[in-house]
Specification:
Elements (H helix, E strand, L loop, with lengths): L1 H138 L1
Length: about 140
């Protein structure tokens, strides 16, 4: 009887082990499937996030390039305007300088003319005095 009970207990133990192993495999397979689903779901979500991130980066790069292009355009326009203003200012300065040079020339020419006239008057006066003196000496 002990053999029979022992044999029954042994069979029961084997069947319980088989059932346990079967349940364990079943749970393991189920958990692996769930884990795989979660991994796949998370990888999909991560991939979508990466794509959105890349799209956002590209969009920002395009926006920044556009802004940079606009700023460069405005800067070039400002530089052109400043060059025009500088050109006008330089022309005005040259014109003012030429006017001043002409004014100085005119004033110097006038001064020279006055000096020449004054010198001529002095020479004429000296000649007249000389002639008077010469006439006095010739009469005497």
């Amino acid at each position: 009887m002990t053999n029979i009970t022992h044999l029954k207990a042994s069979r029961f133990k084997e069947s319980e082990e088989k059932r346990y192993n079967s349940e364990l495999r079943k749970l393991r397979d189920e958990h692996e499937r769930e884990f795989g689903k979660e991994v796949k779901k998370n990888e999909t979500q991560l991939s979508r996030l990466k794509d959105n991130y890349e799209k956002k980066i590209n969009s920002l790069e395009i926006d920044l390039e556009q802004k940079l292009s606009d700023i460069r355009s405005k800067q070039n326009q400002n530089v052109m305007l400043e060059n025009e203003r500088l050109k006008e200012e330089l022309q005005n300065l040259r014109k003012a300088h030429d006017d001043q040079v002409n004014e100085v020339k005119e004033s110097q020419e006038t001064e020279i003319q006055h000096l020449v006239e004054s010198h001529q008057n002095t020479i004429d006066n000296a000649r007249q005095r000389y002639m008077k003196e010469k006439m006095k000496w010739e009469e005497a």
